[in-house]
Specification:
Length: 1023
């Protein structure tokens, strides 16, 4: 082997065009430590180039070969350099300063004494006195050992003993071990007892710098190929890789003392005992038990213990249904009698329809007895859409961090549990991972635990994913992945402690792949032998991990057989006592399962009293001026000319006491922040607004990252304003904002779709959490969805926010005529599941925003927002519509000429949203202002029966018409038609005017669109 390659192999990964520069950087870095007697002059490009081309040797080669034989034979700075370079340090980073440069380090050959002999009188290479010449085989053998070490670090996980069943390997197409142990082919049996210098890229030596090859391989096998498999070498941070190496390679890292082992056994016994007890007491009930993965409970408790000792005070958790009841019982310590009443089939004692027991959440505050610290534990409710809660947990965690001033995530931690098939198969997992490092969405690291059954419902991994591991999705964010055999409890404990420490150290995501099995089928009633006979033949022969570990501790003398039995009997008695208490209950209470309690929010309030939403004009003026100006005292802040025109127009509006849509929005938010309400707006491009109308953040045109947010600088003591441009995601981001809104009721959280049509990719969050969350889980939220909506010729994907879908899911009865009372409007809001509105004026938009906070309860608001109306000259409001005494108008009647002689009016047109302005212009052009009344229904659901009735009675001789932009099978028609009939006691009928039915929400042809608009206006206004 040419010695000219001894340093070249360190540069192999560097692009050829930069190798010379890289070599210089490394060499100059090391040589910069020189003193009069400690180092030669810096190498020049001319000296390095022949070496890189492989045409000659130089003094660095000689030192490198000497270093391979004995690291102490070279200067300490070169020793450090070679170790870092072989460990993969980036160019310029391999050099580190030595502790002292004043005297040569003992046993170190001074570089100055080497240079003349190395280079010769004329600069030619020469033999080095005092340094033994190293053969090519020695060099090759050392490089082979380094290759072996690196192979184990990169691919050791692929041959680790991870499967408790012993039937799977990750890379089944290759002979086992070749990908790791193939490097040993170049070494003979005699080499096994030779000592080799350990590079700095490994910690297997502990304090030793060299080990026999036999011991090197043994320690590598122990670290990477037993029951733990570590994937981390894809991480692009040397510091993080070295941190992980040290945690797994140091000798005896998994050691536990007797007390720790007894605690582990007790927790494992509780996990196993809980499932066995439910299986005996409720043999025909689905419970999605944890049999086969009982180690999940001790694993979670270990993470909580270690994290608590590192300062974490609150844990927000999300999980699918498998093992949920056990987690609630043994991790959160939810009262067992509350759990057992869910099996009894009792009537509900409070509001809500409830949900199956393995979907429910909880919130508990308790003492962690290991650390003697009080902690908060929340498990977020989740439907059968297994990973849907992932972003919700993240949003809730971020909110807790925000409201507790936990800017670094040291006090609040999110833990997400996953199933293997869902983790690899559901896209929301990927979307959620990509929020992990975004400034406005990061939770500063999440610990993911995969309960890896190695099977989905009935589908094995060969048919359910294309990647080797179910955890491969985590590699996209450089999260380390710790695979561990769930039947090795002590290995699981080590992995959990390392995961907690990783998150505390680097504040990044980490994944624990808990490789286990599912002892029963998908649920306790299912028969798994139908589809997996071979797997379940093996499973039926496996002992539970509790028995395996209990016998291990008995054999080693850590516990006695009697102590083991006492632990099991003690927990059995606890379960029996709780069962007795549960049988005395006559009702179940959904309130026991709330995962986000709002302490003190509902107490002391009139449940039907709405606070005023109008505000004083001086506040409106102040907010209007502040959002119309550049940063105060910043004359050098350069604003884009187009933005300056917008600011000037805003100032003119303030002077004229009018607002457009963006101004009304800003005044609503600004006034809420003045009252101490945090406002958070999130979504794609929301800073500017998709339609370039909002511009809530002003950017310096000549200085990068210099920006100004006027709404954040209105008052010195105002609440925060958060405006967050999101990733190109709807599912995860809407879920995130839902989780954020659940944490604090005194906040206004808004998610804006780029176009309302795009909410369809977040439909799972809408259906499972927003529409039904309060009914299932008594979970209130005031989340606002802003959905740009309107038929404006922009095609089928940029027109409709699917208003009809939200109205279909509204929970008011179309055939039930409510009793009209003074608090009728508020009672409607209290009884319905959400509010659906389509405002046509900035003032009404302003009021409905403020009403979200003024209500004594919280309901989601689904708001169809405009596009063309953002700049429509008629779509403006006066300050007079926003001051004290004004309020949100559920219905806006026609106040024009039709009110003079209502008996002569021929037609009353009801509509909502933008189409009103089209009808208004067409009516004026046709000269029908005194014959046709235009009435806007602003709040569609709950339906304003009382106001509609008054409006219809005002025009006794008129035809009633509903006009809408959307096609007949879309929009609000199918919702309002039966409610009009109920309101009018079926005495008068309402006609439809608009587009006919269609499969597509809008045409993509401009000419067709204009023809449809003309027909819509004609059919509506024909009398």
């Amino acid at each position: 082997m040419n010695r000219a390659r001894t340093l070249s192999h360190l540069l192999a990964r560097v692009p050829p065009g930069t190798r010379l520069q890289t070599a210089q950087s490394w060499l100059l870095g090391a040589a910069s430590t020189r003193g009069a007697a400690s180092a030669p002059p810096p190498p020049t490009a001319l000296a390095a180039e022949p070496f890189l081309n492989g045409s000659s040797t130089n003094y660095v080669d000689e030192m490198y070969t000497a270093w391979l034989q004995n690291p102490k034979s070279v200067h300490q700075s070169w020793d450090t350099f070679f170790r870092n370079a072989t460990a993969g340090a980036a160019p310029g980073e391999a050099y580190q300063s030595p502790p002292s440069l004043s005297e040569p380090t003992p046993n170190t050959v001074p570089l100055s004494s080497l240079a003349p002999a190395l280079m010769g009188a004329a600069g030619a290479p020469a033999a080095t006195p005092g340094i033994a010449q190293v053969s090519d085989k020695v060099i090759a053998d050392h490089l082979a050992v380094q290759g072996i070490i690196r192979a184990y670090q990169i691919r050791g996980h692929s041959i680790a003993n991870l499967d408790p069943m012993g039937i799977t390997t990750v890379d089944s197409d290759n002979p086992r071990g070749i990908v790791v142990r193939g490097y040993m082919n170049s070494l003979s049996a005699e080499d096994m007892d030779r000592s080799f210098t350990l590079p700095m890229s490994t910690f297997i030596g502990g304090n030793e710098q060299a080990l026999p090859l036999r011991e090197i391989i043994k320690r590598l096998e122990d670290a990477y190929c037993r029951t733990i498999g570590v994937e981390f070498m894809f991480i692009n941070s040397l510091e993080q890789c070295n941190w992980i190496r040290e945690k797994f390679e140091m000798p005896n890292v998994t050691h536990m003392d007797a007390q720790q082992k007894r605690l582990l056994l007790a927790r494992l016994t509780r996990s196993h005992g809980f499932e066995a007890f439910l299986a005996r007491k409720f043999p025909s009930e689905k419970r999605f038990g944890l049999e086969g993965c009982e180690m999940l409970i001790p694993a979670m408790k270990a993470i909580i213990d270690r994290s608590t000792s590192l300062g974490v005070e609150s844990f927000v958790m999300g999980m699918p249904h498998r093992g949920r009841l056990n987690v609630l019982a043994n991790v959160c310590r939810k009262p067992l009698e509350h759990l057992f009443t869910q099996f009894a089939g009792l009537d509900a004692g409070d509001e809500g329809s409830g949900d199956v027991k393995y979907h429910l959440g909880t919130y508990q505050e308790r003492l962690n007895r290991v650390t003697n610290k009080n902690i908060r534990l929340a498990v977020v409710a989740n439907p059968s859409h297994l990973e849907a809660c992932d972003p919700i947990v993240q949003g809730k965690t971020r909110a807790e961090q925000f409201y507790h001033g936990d800017a670094e995530g040291k006090k609040v931690l999110s833990i997400l549990l996953h199933g293997d098939a869902a983790f690899s198969g559901q896209g929301v997992v990927y979307e959620t991972f990509h929020l992990s490092d975004l400034p406005d969405y990061t939770t500063h690291g999440t610990i993911h635990i995969v309960c890896n059954n190695q099977i989905g419902f009935t589908t094995d991994p060969r048919h359910s994913r294309s990647s080797p591991y179910c955890t491969d999705v985590a590699r996209v964010v450089n999260a380390p992945i710790f695979h561990v055999n769930a039947d090795d409890p002590e290995a699981v404990m080590h992995v959990c402690n390392v995961a907690a420490e990783w998150r505390n150290t680097f504040h990044k995501d980490v994944v624990i792949d808990l490789v286990c099995y599912r002892r029963n089928g998908h649920n306790e009633i299912d028969e798994p032998m139908f589809t997996q006979p071979l797997m379940y033949n093996k499973i039926h022969k496996l002992k539970p991990v509790m028995e395996i570990y209990g016998q291990k501790l008995i054999d080693e003398g850590t516990v006695t057989d009697q102590e083991f039995k006492d632990v099991k009997n003690k927990y059995e008695n606890i379960l029996e006592d709780a069962m007795v208490a549960a049988r005395q209950e006559t009702q179940v209470f959904n309130k026991h399962w709330i995962d986000s309690p709002w302490s003190g929010f509902f107490e002391g309030k009139d449940p039907l009293k709405v606070a005023p939403t109008g505000i004083h004009e001086d506040t409106l003026t102040h907010i209007g001026k502040r959002i119309s100006q550049p940063p105060p005292n910043a004359t050098d802040f350069v604003i884009h000319r187009g933005i300056q025109r917008i600011l000037n127009n805003r100032m003119d509006m303030v002077k004229n006491r009018v607002v457009d849509w963006a101004m009304g929005e800003a005044m609503a938010w600004g006034s809420l922040m003045k009252e101490g309400i945090h406002v958070r707006l999130s979504g794609q491009d929301v800073e500017r607004g998709t339609f370039s109308h909002r511009h809530s953040v002003l950017h310096h045109q000549k200085v990068d990252k210099s920006k100004y947010t006027p709404l954040a600088s209105l008052y010195p003591d105002q609440a925060p304003f958060s405006v967050c441009n999101s990733s190109l995601s709807e599912y995860a981001v809407l879920g995130f904002e839902l989780g954020f809104s659940m944490t604090n009721p005194n906040s206004l959280v808004l998610w804006e779709a780029q176009f309302g049509d795009f909410n369809n990719t977040a439909q799972c969050i809408i259906d499972q959490f927003l529409a039904s969350g309060q009914s299932k889980w008594i979970r209130q939220t005031g989340l606002v969805m802003l959905l740009p909506h309107g038929m404006e010729g922009m095609g089928p994907e940029h027109s409709s926010a699917r208003l009809e879908r939200f109205l279909q899911m509204s929970s008011d009865d179309p055939d039930n005529l409510p009793v009209y009372t003074d608090d009728f409007a508020t009672r409607q809001l209290s009884d319905i599941n959400w509010i659906v509105a389509n405002c046509s004026t900035p003032a009404n938009y302003y009021h409905i925003m403020r009403r979200q906070i003024a209500l004594p309860f919280r309901k989601p608001l689904v708001l169809m927002t405009p596009k063309s109306l953002l700049r429509h000259p008629e779509a403006k409001s006066s300050f007079d519509e926003m001051v004290p005494g004004t309020e949100f108008l559920r219905l806006i009647p026609d106040g024009g000429a039709v009110t003079q002689k209502p008996a002569d009016v021929k037609r009353v047109v009801f509509c909502t949203g933008k189409v009103y302005y089209d009808l208004l212009a067409a009516r004026k052009e046709a000269g029908l202002e005194d014959k046709i009344a235009l009435t806007r229904i602003e709040q569609i659901s709950p339906f304003p029966h009382d106001l509609v009735k008054v409006e219809c009675e005002k025009y006794p001789n008129a035809d009633l018409v509903w006009s809408q932009e959307e096609h007949k099978n879309m929009g609000a028609w199918s919702y309002i038609q039966p409610r009009f009939a109920t309101t009018l006691s079926h005495q008068r009928h309402i006609l439809y005017a608009g587009r006919q039915v269609s499969a597509s929400p809008a045409t993509g042809n401009k000419k067709t669109h204009l023809r449809e608009v003309k027909e819509l206006l004609e059919s509506t206004l024909t009398v």
